[in-house]
Each structure stands twice: as C-alpha cells, then as structure tokens.
Amino acid sequence: MRTRQANRVTTLRRSVTFANVVAAICLFVVLGGSSVAQPGVRAAASLITGNQIKDNTVTGRDVRNSSLTGRDVRNGTLMAGDFSPGQLPAGTTGAQGRRWAGGGEG
Length: 106
Known about the structure:
Elements: H1 4-15, H2 18-47
C-alpha cells in the first residue's frame, strides 16, 4: 500500500516532461534576463571613456540619436564636412577684392 507522499511523487513525475522543463527555463530567462542585464549595460556604458576607444572605431551607426551633447565633443575636432549641407550658418561676407587690370577673369 502506497502512502500519500509516494502517490504525489509518482503524479509529479508523470506531469514533468522535457517540454515543461524547457518552457519553465525559457520563461525564467526571458522574464529575469532582461531585468538583470539592463543595469549591467548601463554600468558598462558609464565606465567606458573616450581614452579606452581606438580612433575611428565608433561610427554614426554606433551612437544613439540625441545621446551626444556639446560637452562630449572636443573643441576644434569637427570640420565643415562633418555637418550636413545647410546645417552650418553662413559667415559674413568679406571685403570686395581688387579687380585685375588685365580685364579678364583670373
């Protein structure tokens, strides 16, 4: 005669299948993985400095929109080619130069 506990164990063994175990593991990974990984990503992002990045290894595709500010860019490092057409304001018009006495262009 089996005891109640033995019956429970037998019933539990029948209901535990490979598919149930895999589904439970996936559920824990999906629900728990994102909440654990996100603080780690934020911590890593705050620990990386410009001194640790090799020149020309980070491209525009690697940077999120609105994540860089004026404080992140060193003065004198941007050139006119780094900006889109029409993004830079036009400078003041210079003084009119002298005409060439030869009368043609040149």
